[in-house]
Amino acid sequence: MLICFRGKNVLNQKSELQKALSKHKEKQLMNQIQQHRETPELERAIAERARRLEQAEQSTEEFEAGTNPTLQQVRARLRHAAPTPSPAASAH
Question: What would the pLDDT profile of 59-74 be if each residue is shown by its tens digit?
């Protein structure tokens, strides 16, 4: 039996592109871990709640701004259309 050994490095057979991709993924993972450590869970929860409250306020303001002119017009029409009580009618 003759065993032939080739001069291949079986431990490091990645191409340059694969090496660059693995380095890039490793950097992204490290950045995510670092960002996670920088903002504790409580702070993230508070920030998320503040963002949701802000969005709710904005949507409420947009709704009120959209219906407010119409509401004012209807009220103005009702004021002009409604008869004003006369002083003689209130005396009875």
Answer: 877 766 655 677 778 8
* C-beta separation of 2 from 10 below 8 A: no
Q: What is the model's pTM?
A: 0.32
Amino acid identity for residue 26 in this structure = E
The C-alpha atoms of residue 58 and residue 64 are separated, in whole angstroms, by 10
Indicate if the alpha-carbon torsion angle 41, 43, 44, 48 is positive or negative.
Answer: positive
CA gap 73, 64 in Å, rounded: 14
Helix locations, the chain, DSSP H: 16-38, 41-81, 87-91
Instruction: Report the alpha-carbon distance of residue 62 to residue 59 in Å, rounded.
Output: 5
Q: What is the largest CA-CA distance in the chain?
A: 130
Tokens at 34, concatenated: 């670092």
Residue written as tokens 């903002």?
A: 39
